[in-house]
Design brief:
The complex is a heterodimer of chains A (about 110) and B (about 120).
Chain A (H helix, E strand, L loop, with lengths): L3 E2 L5 E4 L4 E7 L7 E6 L6 E6 L3 E5 L2 E6 L4 E6 L8 E8 L6 E3 L3 E6 L1
Parallel strand pairs in A: 2-11
Antiparallel strand pairs in A: 1-3, 3-8, 4-5, 4-9, 6-7, 7-8, 9-10, 9-11
Chain B lengths: L3 E3 L3 E4 L5 E7 L5 E8 L3 E10 L2 E4 L6 E7 L2 E6 L8 E8 L11 E2 L3 E5 L1
Parallel strand pairs in B: 2-11
Antiparallel strand pairs in B: 1-3, 3-8, 4-5, 4-9, 5-6, 7-8, 9-10, 9-11
The chains are: A mainly beta (about 110), B mainly beta (about 120).
Chain lengths: ~110, ~120
């Protein structure tokens, strides 16, 4: 059974600080890694996709992938109260169609 | 922008009723999915479809069925609703591609179903 694990949180971070979210996965063959953000009562929305080892930056967001250690991280710089949400990590599954989802980490940015 | 539309946002149904949840996507995606999401349990896949009239069971198909008669439309059916099916239901779509090709899944806004 392939798994994706995340700390459920809540992770509390002061406004302006760096928020660091982590995700580990069990399948060494996984190739695509996604971070979704989900506000309370809303549906998930994609914020980052990473394919290769190393870092990928998009504005205040940086995704870090380490395939040898089987983890992927999301860093949020200059955290804002609007970043408060649940962050879902997803990894490609066995088939061409599916993603395997973590349960999500709840992030709270304190003003 | 990709648009996945779930026509019913909030529904209240009685135990034993047949419930239809409809979903339409406008990006010509091959893959469509139905998930349910419950507090503490994360996203759980109910069914998915990779082509018209094709469907495969996900992790929790019991008590549900699906229909995909047209590429853009994927329906979830609860044949006889029960209280333990009270949940948020999310429809999603993605392009077909090889594993690792980064096929982003796009979600609809969700349908909140309460069974009383």
């Amino acid at each position: 059974q392939k798994e994706v694990e995340q700390n459920s949180g809540p992770l509390s971070v002061p406004e302006g600080a760096i928020a660091s979210l982590n995700c580990t996965y069990s399948d060494r063959g996984s190739q695509s890694f996604f971070w979704y953000r989900q506000y309370s009562g809303k549906s998930p929305e994609l914020i980052m996709f990473i394919y290769s080892n190393g870092d990928k930056e998009d504005g205040r967001f940086t995704a870090q992938l380490n395939k040898a250690s089987q983890y992927v991280s999301l860093l949020i710089r200059d955290s804002q109260p609007s970043d408060s949400a649940t962050y879902l990590c997803a990894v490609d599954g066995d088939s061409n169609y599916q993603l395997i989802w973590g349960a999500g980490t709840k992030l709270i940015i304190k003003p | 922008d990709v648009k996945v539309t779930q026509s019913s946002r909030y529904l209240v149904k009685r135990t034993g009723e047949k419930v239809f949840l409809e979903c339409v996507q406008d990006m010509d995606h091959e893959n469509m999915f139905w998930y349910r999401q419950d507090p503490g349990l994360g996203l759980r896949l109910i069914y998915f479809s990779y082509d018209v009239k094709m469907k495969e069971k996900g992790d929790i198909p019991e008590g549900y069925s699906v229909s995909r008669e047209k590429k853009e439309r994927f329906s979830l059916i609860l044949e006889s609703a029960s209280t333990n099916q009270t949940s948020m239901y999310l429809c999603a779509s993605s392009l077909f591609g090889d594993r690792g090709s980064g096929n982003t899944i796009y979600f609809g806004e969700g349908s909140w179903l309460t069974v009383v």
